[in-house]
Input
Amino acid sequence: IHNQKKGVNLHLFVRKFKQIDGQVQPYIYLGKGNTIEAEGNKPITIKLELDQEVPNTLYQEFNHKV
Output
């Protein structure tokens, strides 16, 4: 959880859908980030602050309801 103190680099990969029409979808690399907050246990929810801003087109794609 305290990745910066421990010298651990966190990399975030995401995908909107696991599969589309039976085809497994690839992950998209969003970059490195640092933990801001964590809560829960199995599952755990973690908030990250990314080193770089997510490109607007990618942000829009992931926030668009299908």
The mean pLDDT is 92.
